[in-house]
């Protein structure tokens, strides 16, 4: 049975938004690298607009190969430093302050609508169908609900501020430009995780771990996974990069398969154990070193030093939370 | 354990070295992927195919693009200004109380997906750190640099910890979607991003409790630092006059 709002339509919507941003970037004379910046977002957006079309016309292997080339091009553009930030016609500080005063706390309403509508739709519209058609994509329920939430928020924002949806898209270019290449990083890391799966990297980690740990000692396995996530994140500077390797290497074989642990709390707390590592490493430069510079601290490691007590205590808390929550 | 069994790990030192040498992360990840695939004997064509397949299958990670327009719109109509006015109208007096209030708000907003409200450059430097320093100066008089630095570092730490352990509750955040994609990729079905978000709540509460406990003691620790500094200052002054 098909659905009214499917995940593919959401991807088209993302693609359309990205293409609008490409057009705006191309017309932005104030962006010193506007052509390559636009190319970057065009390549990224085309994955959303044309993947399904490519798969249906050329077949999976060829379509995947083309997207593979696109991915390499995207990383080359970013790697050669060809992305830059544009110029934006913004409302000035006085105008913003004036509307902030006028609208008051109502300004928070559209933003709060997104999670509220998402949760309500997920809970209430599960399995709901009209005329043999589900309202929301049942395979990606939360994301379809999120899309409804975003649309509600845009409509509410339009009504509240008088700024149209197109104006909203125009404003979002500033945010997307400031996130820059980092916006593609999660997908790239998921891809690297996928390559690790194919190359059976987790198996190598698994073999190393099995040399040292008794696979029946549940508590020890939890400790190894949590501390491993924190240490690995400290080395890589990013919990996202550590996650697929250690989860495939430790959590999946030993805890989920071996000990029938509940996967949802396991992976969530595992990721958060990784975040404890981010707080303790200069490799997480954006969070730890950049602020030290911004705040003109004499000791550039002072932010890390300040964070270590919370990070270590929280890592211990995560170990116990995980142990008690995954084996209920 | 043989060398061939360790070959699939080749991507890890590449990622480590790449991040350490500050190459662009997208490039580092791509090179690590290429090296891993080639080292286990995949041919380049198949490897590109794997790249494309995994990239297409993780498209859900980009749904945050849908959220940007509304945040952008609200920002242009004064969302940040409103948030700032709100904090300053609520915060009374001490450094620690301002930090606690900021922590709770930042974590709460993060849980709602509003991670763009706040941040080191946008909020901590222009707003939070000056407010925290101002509150301490109002109480203790002029402050030496090392105490100012301590307060600033606490401001930065507050922002990081609050947002790290708040944002994972929000289902459209990258980490949640990455976990979702990982589970589906490994054939574990029946878990929605919403569940993953809910399981982030216990750690969020633990982070709140642990960091609040530290902040509760911050005002007293600043007082001690100031007293110690005044004492050494006084004895230095005595030595000079003596």
Fold blueprint:
The complex is a heterodimer of chains A (328) and B (242).
Chain A (H helix, E strand, L loop, with lengths): L2 E3 L1 H20 L7 H25 L1 H20 L13 H11 L4 H17 L4 E2 L2 E4 L4 H21 L3 H15 L5 H14 L2 H12 L5 H19 L2 H21 L3 H16 L6 H10 L7 H25 L2
Parallel strand pairs in A: 1-3
Antiparallel strand pairs in A: 2-3
Chain B lengths: L2 H4 L4 H10 L4 H15 L4 H14 L6 H13 L2 H12 L4 H17 L8 H21 L4 H23 L6 H12 L7 H7 L1 H16 L1 H24 L1
Protein name (chain B): Membrane protein
Keywords (chain B): Membrane, Transmembrane, Transmembrane helix
Pfam family, one (chain B): DUF969
Key descriptive features of the protein:
heterodimer, A: 328 residues, mainly alpha, 2 domains, 14 helices, 3% strand, globular, B: 242 residues
Task: Provide an overview of this structure.
The complex is a heterodimer of chains A (about 325) and B (about 240). Chain A has about 325 residues and is mainly α. Chain A is built from 14 helices and 3 strands. Chain A has helices at about 5-25, 35-60, 60-80, 95-105, 110-125, 140-160, 165-180, 185-200, 200-210, 220-235, 240-260, 265-280, 285-295, 300-325, and strands spanning about 5, 130, 135. Chain A has a 3-stranded mixed sheet with strand order 1-3-2. In chain A, helix 1 (about 5-25) packs across helix 7 and helix 11 (about 240-260) runs antiparallel to helix 12 (about 265-280). Chain A is globular. With about 240 residues, chain B is mainly alpha-helical. Chain B folds into 2 domains: about 5-55, no CATH class; about 65-230. Chain B has 13 helices and no strands. Classes of the chains: A mainly alpha (about 325), B mainly alpha (about 240). Chains A and B meet through helix 1, helix 2, helix 3, helix 4 and helix 5 of A and helix 2, helix 3, helix 4, helix 5 and helix 6 of B. Chain A: Keywords: Membrane, Transmembrane, Transmembrane helix. Chain A: This is Membrane protein. Chain B: Keywords: Membrane, Transmembrane, Transmembrane helix.
């Amino acid at each position: 049975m098909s659905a009214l709002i499917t995940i593919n339509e959401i991807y088209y919507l993302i693609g359309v938004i990205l293409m609008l941003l490409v057009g705006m970037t191309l017309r932005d004379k104030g962006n010193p690298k506007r052509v390559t910046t636009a190319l970057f977002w065009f390549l990224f957006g085309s994955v959303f607009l044309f993947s399904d079309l490519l798969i249906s016309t050329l077949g999976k292997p060829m379509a995947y190969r083309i997207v593979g080339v696109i991915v390499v091009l995207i990383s080359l553009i970013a790697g050669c430093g060809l992305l830059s930030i544009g110029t934006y016609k913004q409302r000035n500080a006085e105008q913003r302050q004036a509307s902030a005063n006028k609208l008051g706390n109502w300004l928070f309403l559209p933003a709060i609508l997104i999670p509220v509508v998402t949760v309500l739709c997920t809970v209430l519209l599960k399995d709901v169908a009209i005329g043999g058609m589900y309202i929301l994509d049942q395979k990606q329920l939360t994301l379809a609900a999120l899309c409804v939430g975003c649309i509600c928020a845009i409509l509410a924002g339009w009504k509240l501020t008088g700024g149209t949806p197109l104006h909203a898209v125009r404003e979002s270019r500033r945010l997307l430009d400031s996130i820059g290449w980092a916006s593609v990083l999660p997908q790239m890391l998921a891809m690297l995780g996928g390559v690790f799966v194919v190359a059976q990297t987790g198996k190598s980690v698994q073999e190393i771990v099995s040399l040292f740990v008794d696979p029946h000692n549940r508590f020890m396995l939890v400790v190894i996974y949590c501390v491993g996530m924190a240490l690995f994140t400290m080395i890589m500077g990013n919990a996202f990069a550590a996650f697929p390797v250690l989860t495939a290497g430790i959590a999946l074989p030993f805890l989920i398969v071996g000990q029938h642990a509940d996967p949802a709390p396991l992976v969530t707390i595992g990721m958060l154990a990784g975040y404890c590592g981010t707080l303790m490493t200069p490799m997480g430069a954006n969070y730890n070193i950049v602020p030290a510079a911004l705040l003109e601290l004499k000791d550039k490691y002072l932010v890390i030093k300040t964070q270590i007590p919370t990070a270590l205590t929280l890592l211990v808390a995560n170990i116990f939370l995980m142990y008690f929550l995954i084996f209920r | 354990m043989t060398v061939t069994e360790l070959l699939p790990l080749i991507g890890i030192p590449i990622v480590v070295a790449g991040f350490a040498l500050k190459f662009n992360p997208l490039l580092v990840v791509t090179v690590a992927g290429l090296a891993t695939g080639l080292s286990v004997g995949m041919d380049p064509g198949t490897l590109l195919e794997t790249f494309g397949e995994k990239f297409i299958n993780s498209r859900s990670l980009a749904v945050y693009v849908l959220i940007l327009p509304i945040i952008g719109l609200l920002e242009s109509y004064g969302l940040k200004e409103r948030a700032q006015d709100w904090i300053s109208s609520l915060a009374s007096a001490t450094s620690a109380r301002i930090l606690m209030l900021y922590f709770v708000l930042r974590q709460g907003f993060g849980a709602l997906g509003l991670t763009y409200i706040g941040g080191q450059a946008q909020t901590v430097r222009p707003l939070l750190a000056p407010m925290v320093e101002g509150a301490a100066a109002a109480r203790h008089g002029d402050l030496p640099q090392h105490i100012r630095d301590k307060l600033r570092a606490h401001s930065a730490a507050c922002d990081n910890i609050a947002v790290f352990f708040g944002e994972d509750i929000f289902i459209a955040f990258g980490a949640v979607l990455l976990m979702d994609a990982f589970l589906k990729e490994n054939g574990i079905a029946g878990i929605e991003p919403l569940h993953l978000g809910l399981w982030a709540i216990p750690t969020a509460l633990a982070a709140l409790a642990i960091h609040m406990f530290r902040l509760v003691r911050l005002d007293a620790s600043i007082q001690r630092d100031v007293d110690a500094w005044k004492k050494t200052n006084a004895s230095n002054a005595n030595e000079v006059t003596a």
